[in-house]
Amino acid sequence: MTTLMQRAEQPAAAEPHPNHTRRWFILGILGLSQLMVVLDATIVNIALPSAQKALAFSNENRQWIVTAYALAFGALLPLGGRVGDLLGRKTALLTGLTGFALASAVGGAAESYGLLVTARAAQGLFGALLAPAVLSLLTTTFTDAKERAKAFGIYGAIAGAGGATGLLLGGVLTEYLSWRWCMYVNVIFAVAAVTGASLWLRNQRSAQRQRLDVPGTLSVSAGLFALVYGFANAETHDWDDVAVWGWLAAAVVLLASFVAIQTRVAHPLIPLRLLLDRTRGAALITVLTLGVGMFAVFLFLTYYLQQNLGYSPIRSGVAFLPMIGALAVTATTATSLVVPRVGPRPLVPAGFVIGAAGMLWLTRLSVESAYAADILGPLLVVGFGIGLAMAPAMTAGTSGVAPADAGVASALVNTAQQVGGSVGTAVLSTIAASAATSYLGGKVPGPEVIAAATVHSYTTTFAWVAGFFALGAVVSGTLLRSGPLSTSPDAAPSAHM
User: Fold this and answer.
1) Same domain for 421 and 441?
2) What is the mean pLDDT of residues 261-271?
3) N or C: which end of the chain has fewer CB within 10 A?
4) Number of C-beta neighbours around residue 359 at 10 A
């Protein structure tokens, strides 16, 4: 009887977090949602020539099919992250998935250039709500250090490999169905993700009600818009054109104003403590730099495969599969074994160095190069290096954050990746164009000379990316702290619905 009474008086064991008990099912939902966002960054590139022919828009307007998405996505990511914290991450995820699917359906059915651009901007808007919700749910669902490292390894593999997968899927859909299916396919992904999220996710939001920082939201959104727009204009304007430097100058002013606002408001959109942390700063720089590098590989190597080797879109996508495999294996195994024990510091700089070696290897490409002899090896090395750096950096970027800030911390990681890709588009395209012009100087432009100039422009960009990776190795090795990553220092309770 005494034993029974003692048992009755003992407090009940704390009920495990409902999301945690279904964490591996949830990881599948989040992975599918992230794949949809990442795929869309490259799958549309394959569809562009067919879409341009069908809707009859000019080469000058073509870039805005890509840029409209990047502008909305990059500018609204910080807001999307904070909305998820305030309204609930399940709510943000479901809204983002539903809106993204509707925008994709409209884009696929578009019969005019204007409607297609509008649909792409709407995709970016809902993607800005969706992407931070995915990463913050991943952070708050996996609380064990070893399991979190494994989950982020899978997430990092999806984020890194999704771009190349988009090239393959885009090639298949465009060649066998229609360019419109490169938009419609998102509806299929979204329906599956919405179904799973509705069944298995519980809503999470900050237990402390906070007001939205409107001045901060306006300044950072306008600043990121100006930054991406300025670099986007650099693809078609000279750097001394006011359409480039004017927007970039406006970006500097607006982002500086944002920082000043964050020091004065009671509930900042992005608490500066998140940005001033050494490890998080190194993680954001890492993700940004890797975004630049992956763009260079996917864009310029795709052109090389199709224009120089005569590959079809499908065959070009298949050519990237070894890189995807290397990236996935590295991100999901090495990081899950090493990060929980020693932290990201040994892995991220090593990944950068390995990635730089692969990029330097690609600088040896010539007009006579072949895939098996000259491309397969570098692709494996680059994939191995990116996988080694990507997942630990994403883990570091969201570790040690209280649940109330999980959404905005996740948005920062996504913003870094998006800005890296957008800036890389402009800067590396400009470098490639200058390299080709320099190569042609004093030569008679024939087919062979033009082909050689084109390849020279690609290899020049690969050399620059190798330099960026080397710099990333130095910065990450200097800033990242040694030892395992910390968990949330002041894990505030979350409200569940």
Assistant:
1) yes
2) 80
3) N
4) 27
